[in-house]
From TrEMBL:
Mode of membrane association: Multi-pass membrane protein
Name of the protein in question: Long-subunit fatty acid transport protein
GO molecular function: long-chain fatty acid transporting porin activity
Native species: Silicimonas algicola
Signal peptide: 1-20
Amino acid sequence: MKHLASTTALIVVTAVPAFAAGVERNNQSVAVLFEQGRYLEFGGTFGSPDVSGVGSPTSPTPGASSGDMTESYFSFGAAYKADLNDTWSYAVIFNQPYGADVAYPTGTGYFAQGSTATLDTNALTGIIQYNMPSNVSLYAGVRGQTLSAEATVPFVADYSVVGDRDLAFGWLAGVAYEKPELALRVSLTYNSEIEHSLDTEETSLAGSGPSTTEITAPQSLHLEFQSGVAEDTLVFGSVKWVDWTEFAIAPAIYTGALVGAPLVSYADDRTTFTLGVGRRLSDVWSVAASVSYEDHTGSLTGNLGPTDGQLGATLGATYTRGNMKLTGGVSYVDVGDARTNVGGAVGGIFDDNTAWGAGLKVGYTF
């Protein structure tokens, strides 16, 4: 049952994109640590949000449609895990944990038309794991992460900003308990915040110039679990809390001379819940399904990220042949309704939006 547990958990944990709060695109799971022997995996995910709204009665353009202000994206990931001996293991993980691709179409008459924003990250994490005889393991690691960002906001004094790529470091630590005969595993992982300092160039009708913009990738706490419940069947899930109130993009001119508030910020922390079931159909096929939920807070959002909560479903399958396994999945998300903030009042009304994603991952044991 341990092989089944590992295979089906990976379907929903790492094979499809995350549509969670903020700008998170990857849930930064450490599931690769629990693969048997030497293991290599790589894959990609594709996300396609469809988010649009209309100007509120109090907005600069009441009733005008924004058009779809999100763009599709692709992200890549890879990981390698090996045992040093019966006690020590290690893993190296590459992913792209955060990202944003915003582009309000022009010609709509909506007040934010022509506004754009991108945020890109790449992270490389090294983890060492100590395996105790009691089925408990302890692990810790270091993460190096690059981050770059830029935005154009024509409706605010024709403002634009470019932040150069910055490299910064954080850490993680966790504990896990396993009982292989029951396909049982519970792990708890803490990811530290990572503090970036970007060299920034701002331009606007109210002033231009270089500055330094501090951006904190938020800390998080991630509980992952799975357990066999019948022959060839298991349940799995996760609970993840992210400290999104610590995340803000606040360039000096935009925040000081123009608006008096950050370009991007979040009023609430978020907790995302996932629950699923997996089943082995044969020696080569396993399938899984899961649902995810994130609470709707009702707080006003920024115009570059008009979503609030989510309810999603994922279906996936794994094909195993010899030492190779091929995992794929698709997900569909009902994106939470949101109200955007313009000068402390409701600017845009974003209702009935959706997103879908797909992913493919190849793993080798050797």
